[in-house]
């Protein structure tokens, strides 16, 4: 009896051995002594299958880090870091598949289909830690921008994934450095910074300094 | 400075470009300090350079402590050679001997998972996620297991890779601060690089710590933490947590002369036993590596930096310390030659000059060994020592590289030892572990 897991395993084995997706569900099913119907009971297509592998990685990671004792004491920044470290640690176990999968992504600007589930999980997770951070005042609540914070994290994620695919350092130490450094910079930007103060000072001047047309600031 | 060190550091510049950027920034700042100094001097010709030195040291220190890793280590090294540095640099660099800001909690968890497959809270009964202090290429956390208090030292990722490129960038600064020539700096930097790379190998450090603490087990009033190789790895060291005070905290409690002497004696014995019996020495005598326990014992907590002495260095150098050899000019010059302090192509005048200078230097250095007791509180001795150091630092004859590379760490060790004993104001029995001497060359 085929299970979701066994089909995934068979699929991963297939693409890693053959270096490409099976020509059709029929061929794949036949090779693994399944009926097509059995396959479709679990997945609608190969892409849906790959998508589910990535989504599960994110789900497993989130469940794992939220189960850690330290979790509740973490700041939003640390929660973000924790996700990245754990995700790539977990991904190490399926590195060949990850490399295959990322290298076969269609070129384009929109999120590839196989990452849609992962992205949904990631964004839900990001939103929850970012909202916590905004509530505690750790992160700066800026009009328009704070809604985009999660996009910055997603971009960071895509960057690190790509970095990791090409990382050849022992134990992927460089990926650890990339995470530590990159996420810290990103969260630094989410925090209250001189730019906020400059912006507010500008607003104050515009309202109170009595300038009709503040020179050089284009009527800020 | 204070608000700088109080806040948790949010990012470590780690790529070479970023690190270079840091140094360039420091360079600009230091340049700015000179500008500030000279513009002030225009209006106040009496102004001395101590404010300038102070400004420079602060800026260099800030950039070094943000860099962590080997740069911080170099800051620690520079602060050991008080005789080579103006006081202001020393004061600022000494700060780096205590605290530098920590790394993120999730990275700690990640490091444990990488080496043990488990997060630290699953390995230990208790694990403190905030580090208790920095260890220059890593940081220290408290933990508990089976009722035992432990200290866990964790190394930052990628330290080994960045050491060489760091040192290349430190060079121009060290060059300027220390005022020594490029070639001599090369010898120095290569030796430092070798030691620093060893320090990033935590597996080696655990092996060494265990063998040194066993070899030194019989020394009076010296204690070592127990090390746990099964809970250590390439980037993690687990050892017992030693309860105690750092030297400066200890001195603030205004300890009795007897207690100071006891600690001083323990230090003296610890170093001289290693030098003369083991021929390999804990070469990092900065105060942060020692703790003074409530029972008045000296705790040694870091064996990252060990200098081994080959025989062709040990015998000529330590034999010079015995008065008998130094009386014999011919044999002394032979020993100097062997140590590369006198070069083969030196002219007779040069030989006479260097013989005179080095003899003076060694006589100074050997003073504590000549009698069976020595009072390290004696300021005159240290004034002579620093004075002599400053004098030769200004001499054009000493801009050239002289002396074998082993001097770097052995001098650092012994001057470090002397200056800690001076801070302790301890009187020490100096004939407990005597040098082994050869009288002819």
Describe how the helices and strands are arranged.
The complex is a heterodimer of chains A (220) and B (441).
Chain A: H1 4-18, H2 25-31, H3 36-42, H4 46-67, H5 76-92, H6 95-103, H7 116-136, H8 149-166, H9 173-190, H10 194-208
Helix pairs in contact in A: 4-5, 4-7, 5-7, 5-9, 7-8, 8-9
Chain B: H1 2-6, H2 16-43, H3 50-67, H4 69-80, H5 87-95, H6 105-116, H7 120-123, E1 126-127, E2 133-134, E3 138-145, E4 148-155, H8 159-178, H9 182-199, H10 202-215, E5 222-223, E6 236-240, H11 247-252, H12 257-278, E7 280-282, E8 290-292, E9 298-300, E10 306-308, H13 311-320, H14 323-327, H15 329-338, H16 348-370, E11 373-375, H17 379-394, H18 406-424, E12 427-429
Parallel strand pairs in B: 5-9
Antiparallel strand pairs in B: 1-3, 2-3, 3-4, 4-6, 7-10, 8-9, 11-12
Helix pairs in contact in B: 2-3, 2-8, 3-4, 3-5, 4-5, 4-8, 8-9, 12-18, 13-15
Describe what you observe in this structure:
The complex is a heterodimer of chains A (220) and B (441). Chain A is mostly helical. Chain A has 2 domains: 1-44; 46-200, Tetracycline Repressor, domain 2. Chain A has helices spanning 4-18, 25-31, 36-42, 46-67, 76-92, 95-103, 116-136, 149-166, 173-190, 194-208. Chain A starts with a helix and ends in a 12-residue tail after the last helix. Among the domains of chain B are: 2-97 and 162-173, no CATH class; 243-441, no CATH class. Chain B has helices at residues 2-6, 16-43, 50-67, 69-80, 87-95, 105-116, 120-123, 159-178, 182-199, 202-215, 247-252, 257-278, 311-320, 323-327, 329-338, 348-370, 379-394, 406-424, and strands at 126-127, 133-134, 138-145, 148-155, 222-223, 236-240, 280-282, 290-292, 298-300, 306-308, 373-375, 427-429. The longest helix of chain B is centred in the N-terminal third of the chain and has 28 residues, at 16-43. The N and C termini of chain B lie far apart (53 Å). The chains are: A mainly alpha (220), B alpha+beta (441).
């Amino acid at each position: 009896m085929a299970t979701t897991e066994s089909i995934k395993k068979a699929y991963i084995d297939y693409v890693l051995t053959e270096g490409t997706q099976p020509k059709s569900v029929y061929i794949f099913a036949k090779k693994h002594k399944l009926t097509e119907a059995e396959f479709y009971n679990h997945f609608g297509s190969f892409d849906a299958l790959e998508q589910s592998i990535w989504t599960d990685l994110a789900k497993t990671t989130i469940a794992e880090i939220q189960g850690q004792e330290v979790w509740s004491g973490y700041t939003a920044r640390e929660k973000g870091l924790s996700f990245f470290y754990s995700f790539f640690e977990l991904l190490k176990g399926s590195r060949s598949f990850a490399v295959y999968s990322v290298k076969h992504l269609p070129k384009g600007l929109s999120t590839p289909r196989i990452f849609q589930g992962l992205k949904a999980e990631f964004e839900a997770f990001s939103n929850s830690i970012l909202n916590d951070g905004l509530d505690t005042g750790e992160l700066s609540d800026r009009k328009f921008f704070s809604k985009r914070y999660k996009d910055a994290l997603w971009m960071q994620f895509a960057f690190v994934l790509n970095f990791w695919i090409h990382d050849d350092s022992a134990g992927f130490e460089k990926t650890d450095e990339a995470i530590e450094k990159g996420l810290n910079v990103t969260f630094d930007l989410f925090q209250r910074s001189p730019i906020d103060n400059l912006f507010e000072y500008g607003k104050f001047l515009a309202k109170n300094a009595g300038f009709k047309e503040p020179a050089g600031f284009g009527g800020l | 400075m204070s608000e700088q060190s109080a806040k948790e550091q949010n990012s470590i510049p780690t790529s070479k470009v970023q690190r270079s950027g840091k140094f360039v920034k420091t360079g600009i700042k230091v340049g700015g300090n000179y500008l500030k100094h000279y513009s002030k001097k225009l209006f106040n010709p009496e102004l001395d350079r101590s404010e300038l030195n102070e400004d420079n040291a602060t800026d260099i220190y800030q950039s070094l402590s943000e860099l962590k890793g080997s740069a911080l280590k170099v800051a620690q090294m520079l602060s050991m050679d008080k005789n080579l540095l103006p006081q202001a640099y020393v004061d600022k660099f000494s700060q780096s001997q205590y605290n530098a800001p920590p790394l993120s909690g999730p990275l700690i968890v990640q490091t444990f998972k990488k080496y043990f497959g488990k997060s630290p809270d699953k390995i230990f009964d208790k694990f403190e996620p905030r580090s208790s202090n920095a260890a220059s290429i890593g940081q220290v956390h408290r933990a508990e297991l089976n009722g035992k208090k432990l200290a866990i030292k964790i190394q930052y990722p990628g330290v080994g890779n960045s050491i060489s490129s760091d040192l290349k960038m430190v060079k121009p600064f060290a060059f300027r601060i220390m005022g020594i020539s490029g070639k001599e700096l090369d010898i120095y930097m290569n030796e430092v690089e070798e030691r620093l790379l060893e320090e990033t190998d935590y597996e080696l450090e655990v092996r060494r710590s265990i063998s040194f603490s066993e070899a030194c087990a019989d020394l009076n009033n010296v204690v070592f933490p127990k090390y746990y190789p099964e809970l250590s790895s390439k980037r993690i060291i687990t050892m017992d947590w030693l309860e105690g005070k750092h030297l400066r905290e200890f001195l603030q409690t205004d300890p009795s002369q007897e207690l100071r002497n006891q600690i001083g004696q323990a230090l003296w014995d610890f170093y001289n036993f290693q030098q003369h019996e083991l021929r390999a020495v804990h070469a990092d005598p900065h105060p942060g590596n020692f703790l003074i326990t409530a029972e008045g014992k000296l705790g040694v907590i870091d064996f990252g930096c060990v200098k081994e002495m080959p025989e062709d260095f040990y015998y000529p150098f330590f034999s010079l310390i015995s008065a008998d050899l130094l009386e014999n000019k011919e044999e002394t010059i032979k020993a100097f030659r062997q140590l590369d302090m006198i070069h083969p192509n030196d002219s007779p005048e040069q030989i006479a000059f260097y013989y005179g200078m080095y003899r003076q230097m060694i006589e100074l250095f050997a003073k504590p060994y000549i009698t069976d007791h020595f009072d390290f509180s004696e300021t005159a001795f240290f004034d002579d020592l620093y004075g002599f150091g400053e004098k030769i630092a200004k001499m054009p004859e000493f801009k050239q590289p002289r002396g074998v590379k082993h001097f770097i760490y052995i001098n650092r060790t012994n001057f470090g030892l002397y200056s800690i004993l001076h801070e302790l104001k301890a009187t020490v029995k100096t004939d407990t572990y005597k040098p082994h001497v050869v009288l002819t060359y």
